[in-house]
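Record pair follows.
FIRST:
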Amino acid sequence: MVPDLICLTEHWLREEEVDSIVLNHFKMVSCYSRKSMIHGGSCILIREDIQDFHEVDEVKQCSIEGQLEVSCVANKKERMLILSIYRTCLGSFDIFIQQLEAILNFISVKYLDFKTTICGDFNVNLLLESNDKVQFMDILHNFNFEQRIFQPTRVTKSTASLLDNIFTNFDQYVQ
C-alpha cells in the first residue's frame, strides 16, 4: 500500500537542498526549511498522481524558526487541509502557542468547512499531566480538533512518551 501523502518533521533540509530530494512516486508540495539554524523543518509530500493539492503559503509564513515550523497543503476540490508542524523542545512554549492559535484562527475563517488534519512533532508529552499539555490541548479543542494517537510514539528502555500526534476536526478514520 502506497500512502497518498507523507508529512515529515525534522527533515534537516536547507532550502537549496529541497529540490534535490527524490522519493519515488512522490512530489514535494510544501516545505519549510530553516534559514539560520540547523536541523528542524517540516514538509509534505504528495503522491505524484494526485494533482489537486497546493501549498498554503499564508500558513507556512506563520513559521518562526526554532519555535513553530509548519508546512501546509490544501485540496479545494475535496475541501481538505493538511498541516505538518515541528516544535523544538528548545523554543519558547508561549511563542509556539501564540503562533498555533494564530494559524488556527486563520484556517477557521479561510478554510471553515474543510476537513483539517494537523500532524507533527509537538514536543509536548501527552502522556503526562502538565500545564503545557493542558494549554496545548485546550487550544486544539477550542477549534474542534481531537487527538487521534494515544499510545507512546517514542519508547526507550526506561521511558515512553507521546510527543508526535495527529489531530483532526472530523471523525472519519485516519491512517
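SECOND:
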Amino acid sequence: DITTSDETLTVAGDMSEDAQGVRRAPEDAGAALPLTPFPELIEVEQEDLYRPALDVPVGEEGPEGSNGVRLEEANSIDSASLAGSDGDKRLTNTSGMVFVQEGCFVMGNPMDDSFEDEVPAHKVCLGSFFLDAREVSQDAFSEVMGLLKNPARFQATGLPVESVSWYEAARYCSLAGKRLPTEAEWEYAARAEGVGLTWAGTGSLEDLRAFAWMKPNASGRTHEPGALKPNAIGLYDMSGNVREWVADWFAEDYYSDSAFNDPQGPASGSDKVLRGGSWDDLPRYIRVTYRVRLSPVFKNSRNGFRCALSPEAFNYTIK
C-alpha cells in the first residue's frame, strides 16, 4: 500500500526475500520516505521490492539501453530514511565491500614518466567509505538492472560486466543503494589507503602478474574478479581486468585546481574518467595513477566498474 502527504511517501507491505541488501521486515511494517526535490524520479522498479538509498542524479536522458534514467554529474538525491519497528538495523548490505579508512595521500604521479593529466601530484584528504572488493559481475548487473540480455562481450556468470556506459554503471550503483566512487577515492583505495606503489598491490613489475590481468597474461579476455591477489586492504583487480568508471568528469588540468578535502572532480565536462586499465593494456597503462577519458555513453569490452558507499548512507534505523 502506498499513501502520500505533502512531504512523505509511505510504503507498507511485505518485502521480497530477493530484495538486494534488505532485511525482511515484519508483515505489518511500513516505511516512510521523505519526498525528494525531484519526486518524479521515484520509480517502482518491481512490485514488493524496496531498494535503499534511491540516489539517482538528475539531468539528461541516458542513452538507449539505460532504462531512461535521467543522470548528470554527481548531483544526487538524498538517500531515503526509514521508520518502522523492531530495533536498530542497518538496511544497506555491505557484504562484499571493503571499509576504506579516512586519511590523506599524494594523488597523481610525481615521477618523470608521468602523463600530462597525472600531474601535478597533490595532497588530498578523504573521509572513510566502503568499496566493492571485486568488480561488478555480469549476473549481479543483469539481476539488479532487470535485463534479459547480457551486454558483455566475454559472457560468463562470474566474469565482470563490461561493455556498459557510465550511465548504466551509475544506474546500477544507485539501484544497489550505492554510488560510483570519486576518482580520488578510487586512487586512494587502489593505493591501499595511500601507499605509494606503482600498481595496485605491488611496486614490482616482476610480481605484477600475480595481481593484475593485462595484455601479457590475460590471453585477450577478462577473467573472474578475485582470481589473483588483492592489494593490502583486500581489493581485487584494481589494476587490470576491466577499466572502472568513476563519478568524476574529466579535465586535463584538474589536478592543478583540485579541492584538498574530498574532491568531487570538475563541475561539468564532456568525458568521464575511467581508472585501473584493462586486460588489453600494457603495464604502464594499468598504474594506479593512469587516467582514461571517454564519453559517458561509450561502451566497449575494456570498461566495467565497481561501486562505493558512504557510511552515512546506511545508518538508517527502524524504530
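COMMENT: Confidence is low (pLDDT under 50) at residues 1-92.
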